[in-house]
Amino acid sequence: xxxxxxxxxxxxxxxxxxxxxxxxxxxxxxxxxxxxxxxxxxxxxxxxxxxxxxxxxxxxxxxxxxxxxxxxxxxxxxxxxxxxxxxxxxxxxxxxxxxxxxxxxxxxxxxxxxxxxxxxxxxxxxxxxxxxxxxxxxxxxxxxxxxxxxxxxxxxxxxxxxxxxxxxxxxxxxxxxxxxxxxxxxxxxxxxxxxxxxxxxxxxxxxxxxxxxxxxxxxxxxxxxxxxx
Length: 229
Hints:
- There is one protein chain.
- By secondary structure, the protein is α+β, with helices and mostly antiparallel strands.
- It has one domain.
- 50% of the residues lie in helices and 13% in strands.
- It has 10 helices and 7 strands.
- The radius of gyration is 19 Å and the shape is globular.
- The N and C termini lie far apart (50 Å).
């Protein structure tokens, strides 16, 4: 698939990357992607960002908390609408009055999200590189990736809990990134309070996050000692 033929792509609730091209639509299980694709695909500024929910926007539209019906394209799937203030409510009402928008039922969620968020962080290739682990050059075989995606779609978090999973995962990964690049003091200053709360919760309750943060902090302390010598 040539990059100049791609018009858009997104990681969707079925645990597949949906890719829209000029003449086709492809759904590829996330687990079949090579491990070394993440670093060149994500800007360093994104790894240091904690505003994953666009917290300053009056209205936010996104796919994360919405249901995804089987075989639905990302450009035809339901979206989650978050209204944060009166201005946002007025914008939505204008769209409704103009018959440009239809609103369904409030979103709900099923399934536990915390263990999956932790497991995703632990297997993330960017995080693995931080702690000196080898990055797999190739992903799972296609048939196995399809089985994994099917299992997680049916047994993993759904709806608003999928959104919670995605938010927690990105905040935890980005915390480890800024911890690795900047050290603990500046990493703490870089995070808004809600990100502090999420990171603190996992650092207290999750052994994998405790181990990863400790490994990165120890690595940085060793580097500082070598520099000071």
